[in-house]
Design a protein that fits this description.
By secondary structure, the chain is an alpha+beta fold. Among the domains are: 176 residues, no CATH class; 169 residues, no CATH class; 63 residues. It contains ten helices and 31 strands. The chain is elongated, with a radius of gyration of 44 Å. The N and C termini lie far apart (137 Å). 28% of the residues are buried.
């Protein structure tokens, strides 16, 4: 806004100089004199290629054709201003009184090039006069109407790294009282999108001097809408008041503003913000009592955004009734594509747009893998790496805590440490993997890492380890006890089930394949041991369970029938492992024979030992005392023999 008023000062000074000169010097010298005076006042070269015409009454007016204003010496673009024609009409009575009252100012087909250097210098800051030009800076300026038609505005901001252009620009500025309202309306085209602005400031002088004044503004840019009602000043600029902003497609707005396009996930737009906003002179934004909208999501709370450094930094405390973040998983839930995991890329690139420290509380969250109940998490985002601190996550009647990491650096990865307690298994497995045959509640400890930017890539590169414990549930579609009794695989299908008291096991994951060797199921009529692999990436099973029933408490003999579970998760195949059964029976028989051989070997060893002890006692002539070892008996016999020998040697009886 300030550069508009400064430009008006330049034009007014130029018009006064040219209009008065018409009555003092020949016409052919008017342009030269005006250019010389203007350059002396502003340090900028001015050229007037066309004729200069003036009028005296009822307005002191001047029309100049082919006007061009040089740019700052450091600027890269051409002239700062070029116009086919400028018409200026001044109030005669006000001019005599020493004031400048502009009744009419028209600029036809102007081309205005604004630039801001990397060090903050602006080409609309004129040397010598502070941009007012000539002697106009000491006079009070009022403006009935200034109009611009068919113009072009280019703004190259090397501080922000953006370049924008507005074509087909029509604008009108009214400032009838320097201490009263200032109103600006404008419309044009940016990057093929229509844009418009309607702004009213309460005090024109305060606004142009950088002080706060009331401001009501509405702007539209394509499908983006903005309304502000509060106070604003041009130093900074700074503002405080109620802001309502909606952006249907962020990428379209970024292209219009010359910014790098951020690809947001489908379903996270439109974006909206409503609340009390404060922008300080150093560019920091503060939102209080605000509502943020991302697609269907509505979040309430407070946020601070600090501009500067490598990326903006967001600090926020937010809460929501419900959240839907399924789009962040690329639509990947249990269904995926053609029965597999989704290959749709996740929006990891969006993580690099900002750094953040956010606390979020939600009543419910839809994730695409499983619906969450009350959720309270903290999120730290630094250079495209997001760490989610799971402080309280309710999942299918249970609770999940731990840490979840989404790393958008490089080729992307997902990992974390998860502790789940008392989770209802059936709804979780059905939604996450399309598997609905396991009932009960479970506890899980898991460390994992997956590489890639889609669910398919992550699940096929998954690595980690963990431990599982299930309590009081059932395996639907399979009656292991009945199968054991009859060796009949027909004990499967609807209505068949195996009720268990407890299931435990540990596992490792490598290359998207989970391996387990110590599964143990305990039930009232049987127990089950299991081992095998689960293809997490390919969603397939290759698992062997060995039910055991009717164990003899004395002999330890039991009926064991191994069962193979193979095929895809959604249609697993169950069959008796007859080869495994034969091998098991052979192993049992071998173990039985080995046990018999060991018993016979122990018996023979005992017999030989006893015979040797008897022969030794007989030769030594000493009888073993109770509790005495054979070695002690031999030692005692030797000592007694030595004693008798010494006695005879000494002549004793």
């Amino acid at each position: 806004m300030r550069w508009i008023v400064r430009l008006l000062g330049v034009v007014v000074s130029l018009g006064l100089l040219a209009g008065l000169a018409l009555f003092l010097v020949p016409t052919e010298r008017i342009a030269g004199i005006a250019a010389e005076r203007f350059e002396a006042a502003t340090g900028r070269a001015l050229t007037i290629d066309g004729p200069v015409r003036a009028q005296l009454y009822p307005l002191v007016g001047v029309r100049m054709d082919g006007v061009a204003l040089a740019n700052a010496d450091w600027a890269e673009d051409g002239p700062m201003l070029r116009a086919e024609a400028i018409d200026l009409g001044l109030d005669v009575a006000a001019l005599i009184a020493g004031d400048i009252v502009i009744r009419r100012l028209e600029m036809r087909a102007p081309e205005l090039a604004l630039e801001r250097a990397a060090d903050g210098r602006a080409n609309w800051d004129f040397a010598g006069t502070g941009g007012a030009g000539g002697g106009a800076g000491t006079r009070s300026i009022t403006l009935d109407l200034a109009e611009l038609s068919g113009g072009t505005l280019r703004f190259n901001d090397r501080v922000a790294g953006t370049r924008i252009e507005v074509s087909e620009l029509d604008a009108a500025l009214r400032m009838p009282d320097p201490d009263g309202e200032l109103r600006l309306t404008a419309a044009g085209t940016m990057a093929g999108e229509r844009v418009s602005l309607d702004a009213t400031a309460g005090n024109a002088r305060a606004l142009t001097e950088g002080r706060l004044t009331t401001l009501v503004a509405q702007a539209e840019a394509g499908e983006a809408r903005l309304r502000f009602d509060g106070r604003a000043g041009l130093d900074g600029p700074s503002a405080e008041g109620q802001l309502d902003l909606s952006i249907r497609r962020l990428a379209r707005v970024q292209r219009m503003l010359g910014q790098t396009v951020t690809d947001l996930p489908a379903g996270t737009e439109p974006l909206a913000l409503s609340g009390q906003i404060t922008r300080t002179a150093d560019g920091t934004l503060h939102a209080r009592g605000a509502t943020f909208a991302l697609g269907p999501n509505r979040l309430r709370g407070a946020a601070d955004l600090r501009i500067g450094g490598d990326r903006p930094r967001l600090t926020a405390q937010l809460d929501a009734d419900t959240l839907d973040v399924r789009a962040l998983a690329g639509g990947g839930g249990g269904g995926g594509e053609a029965g597999g995991w989704s290959r749709t890329p996740m929006a990891f690139s969006a993580l690099g747009a900002v750094d953040a420290d956010v606390t979020l509380t939600a009543g419910a969250v839809q994730t695409g893998l499983a619906p969450l109940g009350r959720t309270r998490i903290g999120m730290r985002l630094d250079a495209a790496r997001a760490v989610f601190d799971l402080r309280e996550v309710t999942l299918h009647d249970g609770r999940v805590t731990g840490e979840f990491v989404v790393n958008g650096r490089g080729n992307g990865s997902v990992g974390g440490t998860i502790r789940a307690r008392d989770i209802a298994l059936a709804p979780l497995l059905e939604r996450a993997a399309g598997f609905d045959r396991l009932q009960g509640t479970g506890n899980l400890d898991l460390q994992f890492l997956g590489l890639g930017t889609s669910m398919h890539a992550i699940m096929n590169t998954l690595s980690g380890e963990g431990r599982l414990q299930l309590d009081q549930g059932a395996i639907e579609g399979l009656d292991l006890a009945g199968m054991l009794r009859t060796l009949d695989m027909s004990y499967m299908g609807d209505g068949a089930r195996t009720i268990y008291d407890r299931v435990t096991g540990s596992f490792t994951i490598d290359g998207g394949v989970l391996r387990n060797d110590d599964l143990r199921l305990e039930a009232s009529r049987l127990s089950v041991a299991g081992r095998g692999t689960v293809g997490l990436g390919e969603r397939v099973l290759n698992y062997r369970v060995t039910p055991e029933a009717m164990r003899d408490p004395e002999t330890g003999d039991a009926l064991r029938v191994p069962v193979l579970i193979t095929g895809p998760w959604d249609q697993p195949r169950f069959r008796l492992d007859l080869e495994g059964l034969a091998q098991q029976r052979l192993a049992d028989e071998r173990e039985r024979l080995e046990a018999l051989a060991r018993d016979e070997a122990r018996r023979r060893e005992q017999e030989l030992r006893q015979r040797a002890e008897d022969e030794l006692q007989e030769r030594l002539g000493v009888e073993r005392r109770e509790g005495e070892s054979l070695e002690d008996t031999a030692r005692r016999a030797l000592e007694e023999g030595i004693g008798r020998g010494l006695g005879r040697l000494l002549g004793r009886d």
